[in-house]
Amino acid sequence: MLPLFPSKAFLAPMAGISDPALRLLCRELGAGLVVTELTSIHAIVAKEEQLKKLQKSITDFIAFSEQERPVSIQLFGSDLSLLAKAAKIVEPYFDLIDYNMGCPAPHITCQMAGAALLQNPELTEKIFSTLVKAVKKPVTLKMRAGVDKPTCFQQTAQIAEQCGIQMITLHARTLKQGYSGHADWSLIKELKSLVKIPVVGNGDIQTPEDAKRMMDETGCDYVMIGRAACQNPFLFQQINEYLAKGTYQPITLEQKLSAFFRYLEYAQQYPLKFANIRLQAMNFTKGSPGSKELRLRIGQTRTIEELKNVLDVLNREIVA
Ligand SMILES: Cc1cc2nc3c(=O)[nH]c(=O)nc-3n(C[C@H](O)[C@H](O)[C@H](O)COP(=O)(O)O)c2cc1C
To answer: How would residue 290 be classed by pLDDT, with cut points 50, 70 and 90?
Structure first.
């Protein structure tokens, strides 16, 4: 059974971005579910063997904290026996197991994984049945609409539901689109009419108004937010407020900066790459006054301390 989600707005999995510190911050700011970045089933199985010898667990490889719950782990890869093994390894730690059929990156699609699987219903069926049989935790799916045209998600969704997948997220773009053009929300509406399991709509939500419009126009049960959440993690709080009351509090740059300092505190507890932390700082400060100059200064930092100093200067400028 799916857990009870505390909000209808979820944080999207984003490679290099949805790290444990950002996930925790977004949960604290009202996200109903957070999802790890896509993780290779090959890497999970190989790492687990190494870590076992050192008497450590897989959570030394895939870091997360209890406060993130409900938290989902996203898997990719299509080797059936490794898939079952990897799912069993991560099952004790995560509330849901999500399967990736959306990644358009060539190094993933060339392994017949990610969005490439949308063209392979036979293998997809085996993957879903293998996963659902391997674990007791709910298995969910995140996919794109198709490869060149939005013509694959309908069949994939039906196979998923028949195999016991419990929730489907649709990023309403094709593989070929990458992140260009617009997400076609009418496809989310079509998906909702095809399955009984909950549907999560995803693509191009930037504001609380967008989130509500997606829900109203498509009938989706939940919404998932990626890029806009890394610029404004308060978006979850704002969406929750807007869905409940029809209004929401605007967020100041000062509030955003103080949330980013919290992110930095959390980030120091995990073995994150500094380049990724710096990228988060770039995302957080997008659109702030003097942001061009600020981004240059952020780009020159090499440590968390240096980054904090640059942001402290900005903080003092705002408060003055
Ligand atoms: C930098 C980046 C990394 C991403 N990594 C993943 C991933 O690991 N797994 C996944 O299913 N989708 C991934 N996505 C896609 C997002 O989850 C989401 O579907 C997409 O960004 C559309 O939502 P948005 O318009 O709210 O950003 C990624 C997107 C971005 C921008």
So the answer is: confident
